Amino acid sequence: xxxxxxxxxxxxxxxxxxxxxxxxxxxxxxxxxxxxxxxxxxxxxxxxxxxxxxxxxxxxxxxxxxxxxxxxxxxxxxxxxxxxxxxxxxxxxxxxxxxxxxxxxxxxxxxxxxxxxxxxxxxxxxxxxxxxxxxxxxxxxxxxxxxxxxxxxxxxxxxxxxxxxxxxxxxxxxxxxxxxxxxxxxxxxxxxxxxxxxxxxxxxxxxxxxxxxxxxxxxxxxxxxxxxxxxxxxxxxxxxxxxxxxxxxxxxxxxxxxxxxxxxxxxxxxxxxxxxxxxxxxxxxxxxxxxxxxxxxxxxxxxxxxxxxxxxxxxxxxxxxxxxxxxxxxxxxxxxxxxxxxxxxxxxxxxxxxxxxxxxxxxxxxxxx
Length: 369
Hints:
Helix content: 40-55%
CATH superfamily of the largest domain: Ribonuclease H-like superfamily/Ribonuclease H
GO molecular function: nucleic acid binding
Strand content: 5-15%
Number of helices: 15
Largest sheet: 5 strands, mixed
Oligomer: single chain
Distance between the termini: 80 Å
Strand order of the largest sheet: 5-4-2-6-7
CATH topology of the largest domain: Nucleotidyltransferase, domain 5
Protein name: Transposable element Tcb1 transposase
Pfam family, one: DDE_3
CATH architecture of the largest domain: 2-Layer Sandwich
Number of strands: 7
Organism: Paramuricea clavata
Radius of gyration: 34 Å
């Protein structure tokens, strides 16, 4: 004969719970006896009795904090938060110990895991970041139109023979200890979950992080690097004077003067495309081949800058450079810019037609270059 076990699914009333506790504590009934008297299951009786006991025990010691004492105080956590925000404004490629050092908290006060946990509790995590800006629908349209017009109206050797040179400005951040910066991961940053479209690998536009070395670099097909001039600040007046002083010689060195139109390529920096600079170009008979905004993949010189940075980083790791003066840093940057192979530059420039074709095929999206 089978024994049928009864399951009580009705909600327990306060009277039932109080009666069960009374029978257990005062009458010393068993759980089976209490279940029979109160029409509850033995499991429910056990939960009610032990839950009531726990509640009573806690109520007597509400002011007592249980668990291990916290190592970091609330003030320490506020310091970590302020330091993290400050570092993110300067350069998002930092480590947890950089945050601790900036906050002034002694590093021996807690271990790495404790600091890491506190930063995670603030809502930040080491997440992948964007490397480039977002392309809007308008940007995609401009890129498609530009690519189609250049492919239809220009010959295949337009970018190697008709364009005299490619110009752009570049900045290198000076670090007293270049090794610490070289070993940091570059594709992740400390950010919140909803900041994926806000924060990039470069962080904010105005990166501090120490002194910065600025160069105007010019490359030409068949000639390699033909100019690498340092400058302090890019302004409309400075670039206008730069055009008057250097452009005649640049077109002569590039040896593209046999063409009636003297064409060059540069990006859309406001100082370089100011009304004053554009008027000077027209007066001197030079033509700017404009490229769409937010399109560094359409200026081959950007690839050269990437190679220079990678080469400098490799030299730092290979020679284990943990200290570098400003002059040593400046010499290293200049050497690596000028030592860029002419064949590498030529190969990079010859990919322009493929870049345009890829833009047309992908409806304006970024290319792999």
